[in-house]
Amino acid sequence: MKINMKKVIGLAAAVAMLTPLAACGSDGGSNAASNGTSASGTTEVALKVWAPQADQTAESGDSWLATVEKSFEKAHPEYKITWTNDVVGEDDAAKTVKQDAASAADVYMFGNDQLGTLIESKAIGQLGTDAEKRVKEQSDAATLQSVTFTDGKLYGVPYTGNTWFMYYNKSKFSADDVKSLDAMLAKGKVAFQIGGPWYYTSFYTGAGAKFFGSDGMTASEGIKLGDKAADVTKYLADLANNPNFVVDDGTTGIAGLQNGSVDAYFDGTWNASKAKAALGDNYAAAPAPSFTVNGESIQMTPFSGSKAAAYNPNSKNAKAAAQFAAFLGSTESQKSHYTMSGVTPSDKSLASTATDPASKAQMDTIANIAVTQPTISAMNNFWDPATTFGNGLKNKDVTPSNAAEKVAEFQAQLDAAQKK
């Protein structure tokens, strides 16, 4: 789906509705040529923007993306902008951009786990001085880390966190119950994506697994599942056999919540509206609970990251592209993103405005229990062997009796993958 819009703003344009972030250095960042200067003194600029479908859809009036584009025009009367908006989700940005970085979008939105791939493809621009300063002011340590690469430089302007947590029926579980997975399983039905690497990894990271060293950025350190990996695997094999445990395949959990066969399941803010509709007055959310292995309580530790806006340094209008990417992640844009689309802001100053239980659970998870998912490209070698292992857990091929053997095979596959 493609939407084309041409907007002309003269020198007498209205005062800016939003305060933009300067990007690409103190002058906004680019020496790239523009499309030309009109007789009125405005510079003609063409910007291609990639964003998810949800950001380009509205029941009435303008979508969120169209609203921000109009605000950017008002903030920058020096530009006469031709917009081209294409639907590309954050999860598809890297693979789409790297096909041909030179002709890709000028501005796009991406999941920060793709940062290493985008840098290797030379398809993402470093933030300039002013934009970097603003991102540092807006972001907590975890969010800031999510867009910082091994060179210590910032790429991308975060606008929301990215992790998962737990939705639950508060008539079934108390606030104390949801602190312990074992306590919950004693009282009700709990669904979890035990076959999904992004989810089950939380048991291993909680128990001490390390991904690429203590900083998560040292590829040579590889992935080490840790000394407790065999015991954790046995726990997961037992979990799969628990009569109160429901294997979520990505749809089973929310479906069970809707039909009442599930009392809790784990997901992100993207399904908040469905969870709220399913639970009604009993709607609640909380960070992932702890679990018990050999008498030790261990906190589940999800991966976390951010979704961010970036500009393509190959853009013919790189200065304007950098400014608009920064604008997409500005405080006011994040505020309207939450108001119009329910997208939880990552800006610390907006924490008090994001009052939905899902938003609070996401922010608490990132701030208190999550570990930042590595952004280096070596992480790409994790997912295939991890999916195979996850299928073994889901299909109960991994059993309590063979848990140590199966996780040792998994570790060997991870070691081999890192040598490729």
Automatic annotation (TrEMBL):
<keyword id="KW-0813">Transport</keyword>
<dbReference type="GO" id="GO:0055052">
    <property type="term" value="C:ATP-binding cassette (ABC) transporter complex, substrate-binding subunit-containing"/>
</dbReference>
<comment type="similarity">
    <text>Belongs to the bacterial solute-binding protein 1 family.</text>
</comment>
<dbReference type="InterPro" id="IPR006059">
    <property type="entry name" value="SBP"/>
</dbReference>
<dbReference type="GO" id="GO:0015768">
    <property type="term" value="P:maltose transport"/>
</dbReference>
<dbReference type="GO" id="GO:0042956">
    <property type="term" value="P:maltodextrin transmembrane transport"/>
</dbReference>
<protein>
    <submittedName>
        <fullName>ABC transporter substrate-binding protein</fullName>
    </submittedName>
</protein>
<keyword id="KW-0732">Signal</keyword>
<feature type="region of interest" description="Disordered">
    <location>
        <begin position="338"/>
        <end position="357"/>
    </location>
</feature>
<dbReference type="GO" id="GO:1901982">
    <property type="term" value="F:maltose binding"/>
</dbReference>
<feature type="signal peptide">
    <location>
        <begin position="1"/>
        <end position="25"/>
    </location>
</feature>
<dbReference type="Pfam" id="PF13416">
    <property type="entry name" value="SBP_bac_8"/>
</dbReference>
<feature type="compositionally biased region" description="Polar residues">
    <location>
        <begin position="338"/>
        <end position="356"/>
    </location>
</feature>
